[in-house]
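User: If only I could read backbone structure tokens as easily as an amino acid sequence. Those tokens are not coordinates but codes from a learned vocabulary of shapes. Could you go through the record with me and say what the backbone is doing? Here is the record:
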Amino acid sequence: MSDTSHNSEPRHVSRRKLVFGGAGALVAAGTAGLLLPGTARAATVLTSNATGTHNGYYYSFWTDTPGSVSMTLSDTAGSYSSQWSNANNWVGGLGWSNGSRRAVTYSGSFNPGSNGYLALYGWTANPLVEYYIVENFGPYNPGSAGTRRGTVTDGGGTYDIYESTRTNQPSVEGTKTFQQYWSIRQSKRSSGTINTGAHFDAWQAAGMPMGAFNYYMIMATEGYQSTGSSSVSLGGGGTTPTTPPTGGETTPPAGTGACTATYRTTSSWSDGFNGEVTIKAGSGGITDWKVPVTLAGGQTVTSLWNGTSSRSGNVLTVTPVGYNRTLSAGQSTSFGFTVSGPSSPSPSVGSCSAG
């Protein structure tokens, strides 16, 4: 959100955010010893800025208040807890090294004391966007200083959509001017499932385009000038999700077998629509898939996520972005796009094949 001069409201600082790949400075909670392949890592306590992976999940931890904030990465995969005291600003959480359209199930507790958020948090590139799907927050609504763009329904609840501009602020790409997108849940909760695609589509329909998912997506706790605590588990109790975290943590066996591709229109408006193509690998798995999408007359793709494309005439050929290039047998991935133009007839999808 935009900075505010009102002392009664927190000034949200866009941080930005740890792009180094190592574990950074951290303190182990006990003597871990040498880990054998496949062995779960012991609990780890973070007190200084850090990113990395822990038990198959990506983590990010940032604070401008050293010593008064800690985040403990549990020995249970996908779980963390946090405590902060009189912190100026901090944010941390667990998730994936690349964002995507996915269902994120989480459970836990969130006790912000005063100002704080429990949110699914991430960034996109081209355009550079910092986004929040806020599930719970303290007395201050973090979107209220922005411009309201409408609502979206997800998981049985209604979210208010806001957009803000950050001018010459730190980001994952250095100091830049960029947009912040917010979905703020009207009925607060600390457990549930977030369908990220519902929010991405609603933002797009509201004139808030998403970019490429080149950066992380985490279920984050954030505190601002407050004292509090949280405990969060991904996968509905800390179990490893059915779809492994993307970004190279797990690499399925390479294959060159068949795949199938199916299309659906996820949302539409007067002069455009969003489409999604789901790719499913056959029994042999597949590497470097490609899918041709034939557009109707007057249709132009204005943005694409979870894929890269080339165009010849009215045919758009989509290939992986890297982290979803290899699918094991039966595994699925998807890419999406926004089209300017009539929604009928729908684009047609050709045969999925190895690249």
